[in-house]
Amino acid sequence: MRDKAFAALGDKNLADGKVAGKAPTYTITSRETYTEGDNPRIAKQIKGTYTVPCFLTKGCAAGGVMTYAKSKKGKFDSIPIQQGTMQAEFICRIPRAALTSPARPSLYGHGLLGSPSEIDAGNVDDMASEHNMMFCATPEIGMSNGDVFNAIRLLKDMSNFSSMADRLQQGLLNELYLGRLMINAGGFPASADFKNGAGASVIDKSELYYDSNSQGGILGGALTALSPDFKRAVLGVVGMNYSVLLPRSTDFKTYESVFKPAYASRLERTILLTIIQNLWDRGENNGYAHHITNDPLKGTPKHQVLMHVALGDHQVAQVSAENAARTIGASGRFPAYDAGRSFDVTPLWSIPATTSANAKGSGLVIWDAGPCRISGILTACLEDSVFDDAGGIGNPPAPIEAITPTMGRDPHSRPRSSPAARQQKSDFLKPNGSIVNPCPVGRACRTSTWDY
Fold first, then answer.
1. What confidence score (pLDDT) does residue 17 get?
2. How far apart are CA 379 and CA 394, in angstroms?
3. pLDDT tens string 437-446
4. In a domain, 175, yes or no
């Protein structure tokens, strides 16, 4: 699919690492310019659509599936039939700093069943402004807000699950096309909407990057394994293997209320999630993990990945992130935990330690929001919603059982909201970037909510 789609742009040799051929066709649908008084960090937001080859039925709408032609030998082709084209949405936000110095362009991967509008979150605007990065995003179709009703339909009848797995693959292609649009000389860099008052492009098109959080990290490793255009990716609060992490996630509670009536037995639900993972693998990290870094797919460069993990995350099981790190060959930042902040006998088992304060390669860093406390005073952890209402912060270590953590305040958003973590991401997302240690020597990394 990828090779066929890029060949349609005129780039028939992805292995050479060159941005060849034309840019995807696009249309600007809205533009919003901010004064410094309106928004001191962001100068402009641009929305639009772009054309992508469609490999699903139903015009690539939710519920569409891939179909395959039969070869003369009676076997099915490995590439699905192209069903015309689709219009994918995009949103880009240009930092104010880019008006005087071109910004690093980066794709942004949104959260669970979310939307590209998440790039206007405060932490993303902070990252853009502090480090002069232009983020663009598109719906991660298959698991975007436009897929909620299909997801509910599938939970009632898992025999239809291929529609989610197939659309996730189309979503990966959409993101690859948006990345190419961001750095192709005939794409956004040539548009007046992406130029400053002097007529110069606000985009440094020499390198493309990827930054993400939550679902954007869980799908982002798959995107990284497929990308010919970016070589460095940050996977924030990342995991892999939805059949492992969903039963351990607070996000699944609402959807499980639909799943349970259709499949009453817990054993049955567990087996079903394991079975459908074979399809889910086509669209998330679990199916691509061995090819994300040093064993690339054909026509694809090697990649380096920085993984940020929230200790005791309520939404993405920490164990799934560590599984991903072991699989891709990432090193770990040690000490991973302060005393009493892990139940592991061997912290980050089988994950080697980073060898320097400016490490090369791929790595995992655990960020700790600290133990439960109210007004700075240590206290017993309460259920998440009750603890939030009481003004509490902090959370227990990740459980060793296959259960959903619900005590304390969910630390899921804490790493990306911490200036030190954003600085580490920026240091990594450079042509010759490295994993710079932002934390005191001999201490675990803490989020900005827990002082040393």
1. 96
2. 10
3. 999 999 999 9
4. yes
